[in-house]
Structure formats: C-alpha cells, structure tokens
Design a protein that fits this description.
Blueprint lengths: L1 E6 L6 E6 L6 E8 L2 E2 L7 E10 L3 E5 L12 E10 L2 E10 L8 E8 L6 E8 L1
Parallel strand pairs: 4-10
Antiparallel strand pairs: 1-2, 3-5, 5-8, 6-9, 7-8, 9-10
Length: 127
C-alpha cells in the first residue's frame, strides 16, 4: 500500500509519499512420511517432514529422551526452503546413515512458524 500527501497551501507544492507492505501470516500445514517403518539393521533410513507457512516454518526433531535432536555421527538433519504461492515450503529430512538397534524409538517432527506457538506435531517410529 502507498500513501501520497500533497500540500498546495504553501508557495511551492510539497508531496510526501510513504509505502507499507502487509504480510499475512499463514499457519503451518505439516506432512510426514513414512509414518511408521520396519527396517533392517545397517539400512539407510530417511523421514521427511514437509511444512508450508508464512513466515517460513522451523523444525525440531525429537524423541521422548531427547527434546531436540542434533546432527551426530549416524544422524543428519537437512532443511531446504522453496517459495510456494505466497508461502514458503520447508522440507526437513531426518537421515540415518546406518540404522542400529539402539535407534529404535518414537521420533517426533514439530513445525512452528510464529512466536505464538502455532505448532503441529506428527510422529514416526521404526522397529
């Protein structure tokens, strides 16, 4: 939006302009795949969590024992952003290089895009 103001009462015409942009936040929509899986030890395993929103959603991967998973020797988290119809699509991949029996757990993907706790959570587990 823009606003122009003109003053014709002074000896010289004065015009002042100002512009403002309005950004409408969009709540997060979340998808995760696969939901559950059975894998063999040493398999490579990926869980993908996709969220769309504005501002861009951020992710936290967790387990009941670890509220915020981080990159480790066998675990990698990759996030990518893509503009999509006035919003931002963010893909977060939780990747295990070589699954071990100690990795069997309930994994949670949480996406959030506002400080007012607009959060959705889905679960994935493997045995």
């Amino acid at each position: 939006y823009s606003c122009n103001a003109t003053n014709n009462l002074v000896s010289q015409q004065v015009t002042i302009s100002s512009t403002a942009e309005i950004i409408v936040n969009m709540p997060v929509e979340l998808q995760i795949s696969p939901m559950n899986s059975t894998v063999n030890e040493t398999d490579e395993v990926e869980y993908t969590c996709v969220a769309v929103g504005l501002p861009a959603p951020s992710f936290i991967w967790s387990t009941p024992q670890q509220p915020n998973l981080s990159v480790q020797d066998n675990l990698n988290i990759i996030n990518t952003e893509t503009p999509l119809d006035g919003a931002i699509l963010v893909r977060s991949v939780l990747r295990f290089g070589s699954i071990q029996d100690t990795d069997a757990n309930l994994y949670t993907c949480t996406a959030s895009n506002t400080p007012r706790d607009t959060i959705q959570t889905d679960f994935a587990s493997f045995q």
